[in-house]
Amino acid sequence: EPLDGDGTGNRNMMLSAIVSGDGVKNISRRAAKKARRKLEKAEKKRKALEAYLPDADANNGNTSNKHKSVKNAISNAPSVGGKAARARLARQNKSSTVANIHSVSDGNEWSLHRPQGGAPILSQILPQHQKVVEYLESKEQEMRIKGRGTHMKERMVVEVDCHGSMDTGHNDLAVERGGELCDLSRLNLGGNFSRSSLSLLAVPPRALSLSTILHLDLSRNELWEISADAFEQLSATLITLDISRNWFESLPESIESLLEMKELRASHNLLKPNALRLDVLTSNMKKLETIDLRFNQKCGRRSLLESLQSTVGNTVEVKLTVTYPPPPMDPSTAYGDRVGASPAVRDAKLLRSQLEPWSTMALRRRLVADFGEALTGDGRSWADADVSRGHVMDRLLSMYQEEAVSKDDSRMHNDENGRAVVYLSGALVGESIRDRVLFALKEYWATASLTGTRERPSICAENYMILCSPSMFETGSQKAAKAAGKLKKHEALWDLAFEAINSIDPVYASQYTAVAVTKNFVGSPHIDKQNVGAFYGFAVGDFEEGTGNVMVECSARVVAAVNTKNRMAKVDGRYPHWVGPYDGKTDRYSLIYYRTKGAVDPIGPAIFEVPSASKEDRNWPNRD
Prior knowledge:
Strand content: 5-15%
Number of strands: 23
Mean pLDDT: 76
Low-confidence stretches: 1-26, 52-81, 94-114, 168-183, 195-208, 329-335
Distance between the termini: 66 Å
Number of helices: 15
Radius of gyration: 28 Å
Largest sheet: 6 strands, parallel
Shape: globular
Strand order of the largest sheet: 5-6-7-8-9-10
């Protein structure tokens, strides 16, 4: 009998007995040898981790300061991620409540992980960030009023659902008539259900007749399965089914019974290529005309689109967002609805390049909330999924152009795109530490085996390498062992990086999980989507003071230039950010500390101090 619920205790004891030979009979030598190798392999991984993560001191239970940053890298608090992460937690029943109703974006847990395309809402921020946010909002408000008028003194409120969609309109199920609900031809249940609430369709009440429904909308919920008999009453009538913006990893089998269906909308889910079963669907649904699979991240290969189209034939249109491989192109030409295939090839001086990191929904919200543009020219809502990203971006850029402020404005400095630029400096790192860091990085990147290392090719940099704490990965895993080996190889650099951050912010020094080591990082506007909090940037080299700044968007019309030369500065990389221009004949080395695991920090300001430096102050005030 198993010693525990899953039998692992029994298996572990058996393996131990096989290796030690303690009274276990009828076990072949081959099985014993295989078990021994398995244990030896696990022991090897454990030792690899311990090479850099030593056990706590037996006398006092403490860890040496040298390894403190790695030991304390991970918080025990659960991580709140995006849609996929929340879906996994719900499937594992780790989330007791699921936000699934219409609400304003400042009231939901999911909204804390990503910025919404503008400055944070004041009611959300922590007390220590109040002054910074108020300062940034005053700048944003000044620019907004000047560009749009006094009616835009305050941002427009944009109602969104739990998926971040602006399309939160919904209708009542029906109107009561004589104790019964009247028959319907169109039923919109969007944004009303969690995964446990769909019993309405599986076992409909007698008072509700579904036999005449032609169009059924189940979008914007948090569904990942539908019971097999859910559509029994709809099999001979339903024409359109919308299950978009849910958590489906595969198309529900129950839809195979919908013999009259002409259109299936399944965009913005978590669908996997091997779980689409379109051949089965089309063999049953002879009248099917359109299948919308757009914006399913794992279904982005062109080969999949070609395979699906071949499977269903020419009579059925398959809509799919192709992300790989990108078509041959010149870096300056349009890439679908985007410019450039990655941040590395985009011109960081262009406003469009600085806006590209935002999701399409964030751009839609910005048009409405920050520019007061509720409807398109033909009267459609910007929330309409048929309004493409390219259309949204073009309109947003034209709005910026309309209110561009001249550069001789005496009230604030503006960049070439008309956005206000505020300046601040990081905390000055001690001369001894920064000199040693500069010497180490020069020697480091001069090594022939490392020259040209680019572990993040989407970023434009001569060299880019990431050192991760093994604690980021599951204990005993191959990734953890590999990270430990890499860290051991570059131990001196890791320890020097820890010394630098520990001299400025000891608390953060005990939390970061990785360090990016770069040489000549250029431009590359991007968002660090995996980060769960702010990062610290530290730059050294012979580039001129006041150039090569970390540029970060603080709100729709305000950008901060953060001086990191010989300084350690804190910035929230969940906002678009990039490296400002500097002389290409000089060298700029940098260390970037960040967190991708642990408790998620609520979205606050993009910068964490009230800006005090002006562009005219070429010395940039020191904070030593």
